Amino acid sequence: MLILRCPYCGVDVDETDLHGGGEAHLKRFGPGSTDDEFHDYLFMRENPKGVHFERWQHSYGCGKWFLAARCTATLEVFGTYPAQTTEPPKEVVEAIKAKRPNWEVL
Amino acid sequence: MSNVVSALDGQVAPGEVTVRELGLRGMITLRGDLSSRKLQNICKKLTGVAFPKQGGVASEGDKGLAWMSPDEVLVMVPHAEAAPAVAAIEAALKGEHFLAVNVSDARAVFSVQGAFSREVIAKLAPADLHPDRFKEGMMRRTRLGQVAAAFWMVDEETFCVICFRSVAEYTFGLLKASAGAGEVGYL
Amino acid sequence: MSTRLQSSGRLLNKNNPVSFTFNGKKLRGYEGDTLASALLANDQLLVGRSFKYHRPRGVVASGAEEPNGLVNLGRDGHFEPNQRVTTQELFDGLEATSQNHFPTLEFDVGAINTHLSRFLPAGFYYKMFIYPRPFWKHVYEPFIRKSAGLGKAPKDRDADTYEHFHAYVDVLIVGGGIAGLTAALAAGRAGAQVLLIEQTAHWGGRAMVDQPEIDGMSAEAWVAQTLAELNGMANVQTRTRMMGSGVYDHGFAMAYERLGDHGPHDGPRHRLWKIRAKQIVTATGAIERPLSFAANDLPGVLLASAVRDYALNYGVSVGDRTVVVTNNDDAYRTAIALKEAGLEVPAIIDARTEATGQLPEAARALGIRVETGKGVATVKGGKRVTGVAICAQAGEGSVLEEIGCDCVAMSGGWSPVVHLWSHCGGKLKWDDEQAMFRPDPKRPPMNQNGIGFVSTAGVANGFLSTEGALTDAFAAGETAAKLAGAKGKADKAPMGADAAEQPISPVWLMPQGASYKLRSKAWLDFQNDVKVSDVQLAAQEGFESVEHAKRYTTLGMATDQGKLSNINGLAILSKSLDSEIPNVGTTTFRPPYTPISMSSIAGVAQNELFQPLRKTPVSDWSNDNGADNEPVGAWRRAFAYVRSGESVHDAVNREVKNTRENLGLLDASTLGKLIVKGPDAGKFLDMMYTNMMSNLKVGKCRYGLMCTENGFLMDDGVVARIDEDTWLCHTTTGGAERIHGWMEDWLQCEWWDWKVYVANVTEQFAQIAVVGPNARKVLEKLGGMDVSKEALPFMEWRDGKIGEFDARAYRISFSGELSYEIAVPASQGRAFWDALTEAGEEFGVMPYGTECLHILRAEKGFIMIGDETDGTVIPQDLNLQWALSKKKDDYLGKRAHERSHMADPNRWKLVGLETLDGSVLPDGAYAIAEGTNENGQRNTQGRVTSTYYSANLGRGIAMGLVHNGPNRMGEVISFTNIGGEPIRTKIVDPVVYDKDGEKQNV
Questions:
Q1: Which chain positions lie within coiled-coil regions (chain A) (predicted)?
Q2: Mean pLDDT across chain C, nearest whole number?
Q3: Is this complex scored with an ipTM above 0.90?
Q4: Which of C20, C73, C632, C666 could form a disulfide with C83 if both were Cys (CB 3.0 to 4.6 A apart)?
Q5: Contact flag A31-C744 (C-beta cutoff 8 Å)
Q6: Could you give the percent of chain B with pLDDT greater than 90?
Q7: Are residues C2 and C144 in the same domain?
Q8: Which residues of A touch B70 (CB under 8 A)?
Q9: Which residues fall within 8 angstroms of residue C176, CB to CB, at 6 or more apart?
């Protein structure tokens, strides 16, 4: 069972208090987008063995969504950060690169 | 009004650790900019306690303030004062972007009091209740059994627990069973 | 025979004899006994029958690894099957019965299988029961089910209680032997918060039997001293009868505390601990391996360490004459202990060609005959050992000599208990010299910070000597404390000393070239009856992966999970495959370490606390007044209010008619109520709903639809505009939390710059629907707010007083009747309901339930989320195009509706359905079309989504989705009817009652 730090509450939270929300940093496509863009937005998701950005809601706590950078293979967590961003913050990217030198931001 | 009743009408489960439904308490969900001086001031004025920091709570009898999230604070006042308090907040924050809503009747409030009250909570909540790390003045929102709840300590052996009104009976049952099952001898 | 010794038994309190029963026979033991030792003391060697061949089986071990000694324990509400006699502490009044035999333990007809064993080899079930096909269901499976299974399932409800406990520690140390104590000492002195747990009731582990010297004192004295030091540290907690059951991601561990299994008790029987540890040290020791020789499963053949344990801990001699069979020095300790206890050891059979270490020499000095280079060809005896036949280990089993004995103590070496290390991904390496898998410290389970969070200490880490184990354990405790952030000094490690041992010589089969006849009697897995020959057959038949061989043979799949058998089994497998043991690898270790009770997993979640049931302020009244409840999410809502003498169906019909004719009350408190407020709230709601909400006027209400980004309908409800900045959105009962979360998700993660706050106020209000021709009359009688047609028109709301209640009245209708939904604070809800009930008496008031609600709405053709929708239905399917705003550039689902399949004219669409004979269509029935599909199934052209009996119309009514339906009014189609003729049904308008809506507009 994972434990993740809620960046809003500052507490380490058991997975049972969280609600997973899939891949982070999706860009929404609405009316006016092409069929391919919309299809990818709805259905296509990264499934890496390695670094993954994902959405978590502190559902039994503050109710806020936050994002986590996590290795899907080792479960190492490189950082959690508020959801109000379209890309991972610099310090999280640096933390990942320190541990996974070959990793590139997609 | 004589017809006004809390979810469990003050039910008590006495024991080494006593679980008690505390009746109705005025509660206002206040969402807004928690750094706003106006917001902090009206909260302090209504409750008489200091404005809480992240994860904090301050309470004095029925009155208190609890940090619920980065943009939400729970304002506690006696039940009859909740509606006037909402009006006072609305007047004070006129022009700001905020939401103040009376949720007094959507909640149930319990006290869990006794020597091993920490352990009663730790049986039910995935939260670190070690005395070195969970102290008076801290607010924790988490689960009790299968329902959402929040709790804090009003003194070294008393917790105040809040949950939704619809699950008051379940929550009381959990607390009563866990208190009745006795001490773990760990915390 | 096995009997009680007068002299020894360090765990016994001989001043406190206790009595217990086994298969109804009254027996006696002492406080401190396990059930196993007490049975042995009473010469009850035979404790059960094996799973497949029903062979007589006796206790083979003295601890958690025991495969044979499983019994039914207790009675009635305290009955539990499959309890291990070796870990069950004896108490006065204990009742045990043996299992897996018919008719009796001593005479079991199933034992005939043992003579058929040639015909019951590995994979027998897979091979035998395939043909003829129908036989599986009607002959084979019922037969196998009857003979399968170990103990009996309890008949009564569990009379005990259980609980969970959450703990957060720096260092969790599992195992209270000298290694665990030492690790705790190091971590505790360094200042870490330590929890040390031990599965038995006693500290010190095996050292208490073998008594090595530690820090110049006896192990017993050292353990007492160390425990005193640990218990004096405020940062260290020690607990016994608590097993480390599993290790999981990010430092999570489960531990199983048995509070009530060792006698009558108050409080919970088991406590399941959910522990979050920064570091976990597993000092779980090792388990002795059996040796694979013929008839090694006879009662009286035990692990050498177990024989020693029974003698020294419990003062029980398993036999008067014990032959020790070994491939290592440690087993000599058993021979020496027995000899010193005055028992006979006719011979030590050592497979090694040489045995000249301190222990063998000590044995020889006691006059014990030591035979090196020898093995056991077979054990003699029926229901118990009568002797052993000796052969050359290097040969094929020619008998050199028979030695009479009534106990065989075997030792194939020791396997570290690596389960907890492995649960979460810790890797193992093969130690050739010691012939064991041991943890590879370079590849530990990783935590969230990318560092290893489990370490092993002492024997569990492959350090079998006292000195090695203590040094290793101390370092493990110190390192764990440091990794957990402790800053203090651990001081010096204790020093241990014991007899130097010569190396083990691995023996996987005895004798080395054993014939098929011997191999087919050499047991690997005692509980599941897997023999050497079975594993060899599996390899021959191509099950080369250890995981396949395991499943094919069932090796290690019994309740002991192969604690004794796995290593021996995979050694046999690797030999058969001509491969090395490390290349074959081990099967996966999975929690729990030993079985834990199902009830402990449930914890307090039993009976009324099984799951939370949500209650409205009116629920108690409903339950007191005939409510027949149905679950709606976690709520229990009244389906109907049944009066005495009525069926549920009668009650529904009465409620339907009364609400249309007089006055009905519905507890609608469960409907979701969300406040949405802010300068951007209108814009936001225009994105959430398919129709326009920003232009709703203050004081008015509007029905709205919500779609997912896929375009499918997800919720509906009436939205009221409260003031310039504030809207109140009603959701379905099941949707309140979901839609609240949905709104928050979009506000937090997509449009975080929009100024909107949402609050869920569902439970703040009791909401009561006052419905029917007399609805206005009852409200007027209560007085207060003007609820006239003019003052409160249809689809508007007002705040005010009704009677003495603070109320918000919504003039909305889900029934087509004159209807008000009145929200009052939940604390006043019950009083308001009572007031309406009382005031409504003269107007024919009756409460109505959800079924009546459904029928009323279906008569009006109103859709219900979850009936007409199932996650694949879009508004267009339900003829709700009018609710899809054309003025808006965007809303959730809009883009999806442009996708080709969504715009397909061939989608099934909503219609009313009227059976020609007036019957009620079966729910979910399909409309039959011509022809068949590519799978040869009948084509369909629609399905029923809602179907009811309408008491108002005196016939069945239904709605459904039908291909091209709205253009086929009046056409008759057929619906499936399981077990009957297809039902002829006319396609009609969904609105079948008061088509012009005259009743609600009064």
A1: none
A2: 95
A3: yes
A4: C73
A5: no
A6: 98
A7: yes
A8: 8, 62, 64
A9: C196, C197, C198, C199, C200, C202, C203, C204, C205, C238, C240, C283
